[in-house]
Design a protein that fits this description.
Elements (H helix, E strand, L loop, with lengths): L1 H48 L4 H26 L4 H18 L1 H16 L7 E4 L2 E8 L3 E5 L5 E5 H6 L2 E3 L6 E2 L2 E5 L5 H13 L11 E7 L4 E6 L1 E2 L4 H19 L15
Antiparallel strand pairs: 1-2, 1-5, 2-3, 3-4, 6-10, 7-9, 8-9
Helix pairs in contact: 1-2, 6-7
Length: 270
């Protein structure tokens, strides 16, 4: 009976000493979580109105949310009487160990931060990077996902993306399609240029400004080669590319302009 009374007395003493601290800690956590939620929600609305990039929004909001939650947890622990300095030192030591083990991942994380801040490309852009060509499907914290013209999914670490060369075909809003069409030497150059230019101007996906151009590119062994260069929007690139070759072939045939075979060699007449 006396032993039970001692335990009850001990429990009451603990409740008197730590009860208020525990209740205060719970209250701080509840109120703090509500404040964090409101701050993140408010920032989300501000970013939405300011038309921030979607990937950047998600990254910054997640970073802010986790940072505030860590500070809130440290505040609650401090309220319970735990030495936060020692606790922070343990976290720092553990973070250093994890960081050394995950150097590659941290490099990719840093690359993702740089990409989201400086925005060398966005979701939907046609880019060429690390020897790959494709449309950006998703920008994650560690990797960038692209879809190739063959509809293959390409995943590239952000560390190499941030430190490598990137060609963005979408950034300027227009792209030039370079094609080469060859005709026989005896054909009239002006007539050929007019026929080829008509093919370009009749294509609704070809931009009027900058204007498409047709110029003599080179005098090859068996043909006079013309540089046929229309401009279009990046999303119409392949449509214009294939339509230009097909349209030029049909138009030249209709106009009676000869297109020599590649293996033909011009023989000098004696």
């Amino acid at each position: 009976m006396e032993k039970a009374q001692e335990w009850i007395t001990y429990g009451l003493d603990l409740a008197k000493e730590f009860g208020p601290k525990l209740l205060a800690g719970i209250l701080i956590y509840i109120v703090g979580s509500w404040i964090v939620k409101k701050l993140v929600g408010g920032l989300r609305k501000v970013m939405a109105k300011s038309k921030y990039d979607e990937s950047l929004q998600k990254f910054l909001l997640n970073l802010l949310s986790w940072t505030l939650k860590v500070f809130l947890i440290l505040l609650v622990i401090s309220q319970l009487g735990v030495d936060v300095t020692t606790f922070a030192a343990v976290i720092a030591a553990a973070g250093l160990a994890v960081g050394l083990a995950l150097q590659g991942s941290l490099s990719n994380f840093a690359g993702g931060v740089l990409i989201m801040i400086f925005k060398p490309y966005r979701i939907g852009d046609l880019i060429e990077a690390q020897g790959e060509l494709g449309v950006v499907k998703e920008i994650e914290i560690f990797t960038t996902k692209m879809v190739s013209p063959e509809n293959k999914l390409i995943i590239i670490p952000n560390g190499t993306m941030a430190n490598g060369n990137i060609v963005n075909y979408t950034a300027e809003g227009k792209i030039r399609v370079d094609t080469v069409i060859g005709v026989a030497y005896e054909e009239d150059i002006k007539k050929t240029k007019d026929v080829l230019l008509e093919v370009l101007t009749s294509n609704p996906n070809v931009l009027k400004e900058p204007a498409p151009s047709v110029n003599v590119l080179e005098l090859a062994d068996s043909s006079v080669n013309f540089a046929v260069r229309p401009f279009c929007k990046p999303e119409h690139y392949w449509d214009v590319y294939f339509a230009t070759y097909e349209g030029c072939k049909l138009a030249l045939d209709k106009a009676g302009i000869e297109i020599p075979y590649p293996h033909e060699v011009q023989i000098e007449k004696k």
